[in-house]
Amino acid sequence: MPPRILITPRTFARDDPTPADILQEAGCELIRNPHHRVLTEQELAALIPGMDGLIVGLDPVTETVLRGADRLRVVSKYGVGIDNIDLPGATRRGIVVVNAAGSNSSAVAELAFGLMLDVARQISTSDRRIRQGRWESHKGFELWRKTLGIVGTGRTGRELALRARGFEMRLICCDTVPDDQWARRLGATYRPLNRVLAEADVVSLHIPLTADTHHLISAAELALMQPHAILINTARGELVDENALVAALSQNRLAGAGLDVWETQPPVNTALCGLENTVLTSHIGAHTQEATAAMGELAARNLVSALAGDLPESTVNPEVGAVRKTRQAPSKRPVAFLRRGWKGNH
Fold first, then answer.
1. DSSP one-letter code for 237
2. By the 8 A CB rule, do 31 and 7 touch?
3. Which alpha helices (DSSP H) does the chain contain, by range?
4. Are the beta carbons of 78 and 244 closer than 8 angstroms?
5. Does the structure show a pLDDT above 80 at 85?
6. What are the structural domain ranges in the chain?
7. What is the pLDDT of residues 278-315, one digit of tens each?
8. Fold annotation for 4-103+288-338
């Protein structure tokens, strides 16, 4: 029986067949998302039995889902963030979890910079006014040589820093694991979070969602920011307390915000939609032709490699290797084709 692969993201191989070709050339049987949207926990739980691999987007891979995963060996994230995946639960079951690290960093960084420009110059506000037949003046501020605070200097944060250097912005950064060599090379400096918030004209978030980072930016943190500053979030909506952000924006304690992610997606009855000093997008950070192609190909190659028994470089639970060794090796399926030198991030 060929390995059966459930694919939930709607855009996977939609415009470029290469990712699907990689899987089919490896002899895999592809099962598509029948609902054509992000699946609920119950819907994914109903589809997962009998699947050897899962290529997943934002769908919740919970303990409930994993309980019914009787054959699952690999979860390959079509993207980078893994907060929708029960990583400990997968590891206990010997399931390899991989992500497409680095595939969409450039796309997300460019959107973050675009949001910075939009909010600072009130581009979307002016656009809305003109469409309403109103010709008005909107006074913003320039980004040239302003201070950019980057919270999280992983791949996306570093890509944003490179773009900001073109505007000769002063770069101050915060990260739990500072890379002083990178900072010196780029002319950036690391600061504690409170100083980044207090000093920056623009603060941009590029960190994963964890128990420690949930509502990292709440009322107390927003109070540290300057009244003319703006907040950009293209990472995860739950990093920011939306109620606290609404209050700060409504009371002009913060000049504006650019948000690509939300606490609840899609947003429901959020006051943010009624504020003029916000620019709001629908989690489109990774949605470029280039990023979609890269994510799809890497997700497919990672899955094929992991099915063959390897641990790709972008494995996010490498300790699963020890778990696997304590278990009987899975019965050989027709996957000799899987070993084609596809390992890690290409």
1. G
2. yes
3. 18-25, 41-47, 63-67, 87-92, 105-121, 123-131, 155-165, 180-186, 193-199, 219-224, 242-250, 289-307, 320-325
4. no
5. yes
6. 4-103+288-338, 106-280
7. 999 999 999 999 999 999 999 999 999 999 999 999 99
8. Rossmann fold (3.40.50)
Q: Is-contact 283 261, C-beta < 8 A?
A: yes
Provide CB contacts within 8 A for 327, sequence distance 6+: 94
Among 97-106, 176-185, 218-227, 323-332, where is mean pLDDT lowest?
Answer: 323-332
Amino acid at 176: T
pLDDT in tens, 22-49: 999 999 999 999 999 999 999 999 999 9
Other beta carbons within 10 Å of 291: 20
Cα–Cα distance between 245 and 253 in angstroms, integer? 10
Q: How confident is the model at residue 190 (pLDDT cuts 50, 70, 90)?
A: very high
Amino acid at 125: T
Q: How far apart are the first and last CA of the chain?
A: 29
Q: For the domain made up of 106-280, give the CATH fold.
A: Rossmann fold (3.40.50)
Q: Tokens 């987007």 sit at which residue?
A: 57
Place of tokens 């995946």: 85
Determine if the peptide bond prior to 330 is cis (ω within 30°): no
| Fold agreement (4-103+288-338, 106-280) | yes
Per the CB < 8 A criterion, the answer to whether 30 and 55 are in contact is no
Look at the block and give the residue holding tokens 């899962």. Answer: 54
Query: Helix, strand or coil for residue 268?
Result: coil
Nearest to 154 by CA among 173, 167, 170, 168: 173
With beta carbons less than 8 A apart as the criterion, state whether 160 and 114 touch.
no
Radius of gyration of the chain, Cα coordinates, nearest whole angstrom: 22
CA distance 169 to 163: 9
pLDDT, position 273? 93
Q: Is the pLDDT of residue 67 over 60?
A: yes
Buried residues in 180-189 as b, exposed as e (16+ CB within 10 A)? eeebeebebe
Which of 214, 221, 215, 217 has the alpha carbon at shortest distance from 194?
Answer: 221
For the record, the structure tokens of 80 come out as 């980078």
Sign, CA torsion 262/263/266/269? negative
